[in-house]
Amino acid sequence: MAQAHSPPDNNQEQADLVADDRNALSVRCSTCGCMILAAKAAEYVTQKPFQLPLCRQKKNMTTVEKETLTEWWSVKGAFDFENIGFTNASDGVKYLVCADCEVGPVGFLCPETHTHFVALSRVKNR
């Protein structure tokens, strides 16, 4: 079942995070602090609603719990990242995880456009 998107927990206003439609600060793993994207490396996108699986799933569930997210950092290629990992494809979609601690998914690779999307609510910006 999809859940409604909630704002990032990082107590930062959107204006502090976005400058000229790009990430004003570096994007880091919320668990280990590993840098995922350098400042100004990604475009801010809000017109791409996507149901991303929750990082923690309830035990004994037969379906994957997801939440609909609408705020993303977007990059065209894998080499735009400082550090990122990929899952095997699930239903045709590859998910993005922290390459250091493997927490995730923090985003996804769009199978049609091959654009990478990192959810603002799944990372820290600093």
From TrEMBL:
It comes from the Eukaryota. Coiled coil: none annotated. One of its GO terms (cellular component) is membrane. Keywords: Guanine-nucleotide releasing factor, Protein transport, Transport. Signal peptide: none annotated. One of its GO terms (molecular function) is guanyl-nucleotide exchange factor activity. Pfam families: Mss4. One of its GO terms (biological process) is small GTPase-mediated signal transduction. PROSITE patterns: MSS4. PANTHER family: GUANINE NUCLEOTIDE EXCHANGE FACTOR MSS4 (PTHR13276). This is Guanine nucleotide exchange factor MSS4. The lineage of its organism: Eukaryota, Metazoa, Ecdysozoa, Nematoda, Chromadorea.
